[in-house]
């Protein structure tokens, strides 16, 4: 049994995963870990789910090195076994959005102080409870789910990247392309949709969201590279935050001022109306654009989407 297993996405962060793979032996040796205490391997697209399950069965702590999609794949694998209470999960952020790393206080230390600093702090970090949710009983949701303009942008971005339209793999280039996609897709609205949910008091409600800009469902207080449209989000309370955004003005305001103390809180509570719910159901058009933790989910879940509580895992996090 290894103390640590590093699963490294070799293409995340413009290929930074390969650099980290090269430096890990020196870092682990400097922390007095023997070779038998840990191992590192690149993720394999062909059998990634099986690879993750094998890693979970062989370690006390699994470190996902990549973006939100990499850690989401790890958490999805945890739903199908008894690993939630046995294996701690860590993250070295190499993606574009890195929303989960931001709320776990891992992103800024990595950017400001570098890999050596983060690994040394991370391997000694305490774990904190973290809710995991199930989308249609199959997909794990750690960060957020949405349908609408932001999902359309994510879909078009992933399509452009797959077709070679994006010339660079750098984080900056990716973010600039996201901005270009926003202006190209700025007129998009939900084709049709109904949002049904039950709040923490068991009161259920249904809302027509046809023609609205987006519906965002959040588990963490970070969305789309650090924006926060959620009111008093808590990632270990068994509740989701749901934001129905009817127009472009409210969408932009949520992104622009959501993180501003007091002003942002007032806006989200009284004007954006972020709701806390225990479960929800979305009924949308079959060709609606959807995203899960920043990854394109369009065409993969049908017209009815349910999101329910799955379990709680232990995530390594640095102190504020």
Element layout with pairings:
Layout (H helix, E strand, L loop, with lengths): L1 E7 L3 H19 L7 E5 L5 H9 L2 E8 L1 H11 L9 E6 L5 H5 L3 H7 L1 H8 L3 E10 L3 E3 L2 E5 H14 L8 H14 L8 E7 L4 E5 L5 E5 L21 E6 L2 H10 L5 H10 L2 E10 L5 E3 L2 E2 L7 E14 L3
Parallel strand pairs: 1-2, 1-3, 3-4, 4-15
Antiparallel strand pairs: 5-6, 5-15, 7-10, 7-13, 8-9, 8-12, 10-11, 11-12, 12-15, 13-14
Helix pairs in contact: 2-3, 5-6, 7-8
Percent of residues in beta strands?
Answer: 25-35%
Biggest sheet details: 15 strands, mixed
> What is the name of the CATH topology of the largest domain?
Tumour Suppressor Smad4
Number of strands: 15
Order of helix and strand elements from N to C terminus: EHEHEHEHHHEEEHHEEEEHHEEEE
Shape category: globular
State the helical fraction.
25-40%
Uncertain runs: none
Number of helices: 10
Report how far apart the termini are.
Answer: 31 Å
Q: Helix- and strand-based class?
A: alpha+beta
Mean pLDDT over all positions: 88
Counted up, domains total: 2
What would you report as the Rg, rounded to the nearest angstrom? 19 Å
Using the 3D structure, state the CATH architecture of the largest domain. Sandwich
CATH class of the largest domain: Mainly Beta
